Amino acid sequence: MDYHLAGFPEHGNTKPILDSFKYSIKNNDRESCGIFVLDNFNLSFIPLENKFLKHSNYFLADSEIFSKHLINKKIFCLFHSHTIDSVEPSNLDIEVSQSLCLPSYIFSTSSRDTYLYFPDNYNASDLYGRQFISHLQDCVSFFKDFYFKELNINLLDKYRNWGRKRFGSNEYLISSLELHFNEIQTEDIQYGDLIIFDPTITEFFHLGVYSKNQKLAHHPYGMLSTEELITDQTWNQVYKVYRYKEK
Fold this sequence. Notes:
Distance between the termini: 46 Å
Number of strands: 11
Helix content: 10-25%
Strand order of the largest sheet: 6-11-7-8-9-10
Strand content: 15-25%
CATH architecture of the largest domain: 3-Layer(aba) Sandwich
Structural class: alpha+beta
CATH topology of the largest domain: Cytidine Deaminase, domain 2
CATH class of the largest domain: Alpha Beta
Shape: globular
Order of helices and strands: HEEHEHEEHHEEEEEHE
CATH superfamily of the largest domain: Cytidine Deaminase, domain 2
Largest sheet: 6 strands, antiparallel
């Protein structure tokens, strides 16, 4: 077990994601690729052989296995590794993600960092009742989709990485949000304002959106996304409240 990965499952990771990391590290002489397949609430990682042998920083996936799952509409997310420190998607990475209308999860075998990219043509599932998948479908991606579906605000042109940073995640989240959100007082909260909650189950901040009729729309850890009444206990867990600058 790589010591950089050993604690990551305790931060809400799933076995398929850890499998993808291990697969990449085992084959760290060149980029690795694979797919996350979701079948009846069962997520699995399927590695795809890299058939591009001319350059270590490119990959050509096994088309037969990929096509089978693509036709059956079981691919939840693309995956590939970078052999360099940067996890920023390349222009080619973006083109592939856009062409398939699928998000792409990137892992650097060098820096051990991660990146979750959503193309702007990705058709997200319904807001409520969606499965919690750590680092791929959680409260952060729910917040993105709520703003698009309910407020007609597309945040994809403001933020490209929708994954939890493996290092300094909370600091990165707040610093990124404050580029386009203003902190407000809790008593001034309005429909669509973003609520940041203190960490409870994990070390990560939890995100929710203030919905109609004093309800909280969010995706709780390990549960289905939902909308529920805000209680006094809920308010006691609030860290900060933010409002979109252009709202």
